[in-house]
Amino acid sequence: xxxxxxxxxxxxxxxxxxxxxxxxxxxxxxxxxxxxxxxxxxxxxxxxxxxxxxxxxxxxxxxxxxxxxxxxxxxxxxxxxxxxxxxxxxxxxxxxxxxxxxxxxxxxxxxxxxxxxxxxxxxxxxxxxxxxxxxxxxxxxxxxxxxxxxxxxxxxxxxxxxxxxxxxxxxxxxxxxxxxxxxxxxxxxxxxxxxxxxxxxxxxxxxxxxx
Length: 211
Description:
The protein is of the alpha+beta class. The protein has one domain: CATH 3.90.470.20. It has 6 helices and 9 strands, in the order βαααβββββαααβββ. The strands form 3 sheets. The protein has a 4-stranded mixed sheet, covered by helices on one side.
């Protein structure tokens, strides 16, 4: 595969899904996913999980030319997604209570979402997890700018953590702002990639082919 494109699909989470819609989406999950879904006791977390994994399967299916339920998608310890076999694709999944993002690329990639919430004691957290350079940058900012920059740095670090870290290629980073969220992207590729971000309409999930 020769490509330097990162595909990212973003899905706003609907306020509710009907029992019929839920059954239809559950029908495309694998055994591992179903087991995890059934163990979730919080209803909101169940919906986030279901929609995130449905989004992953739909969009992976479109690139692999498969039915969503046949996508060889597994989740390693810690929840990191991986496509089995020799498809050549790498992937990453992130969600908040309002938004889901699924990324795919032919090289290691990580994506992370953070909502625009107020962070308590950002400097205290930064001094524990950030570099001295990042902490110094935050200390130089006023309160509002500090909040924004903290979210950006945290998001970038999470995106890098979610990606595979043993690549010999340099890391490329990019930030996006939309839907009152910051989205960070980390990609291990020697050339600056082309990033295609697509907003997904929830109703797309309600019509899909079955074998």
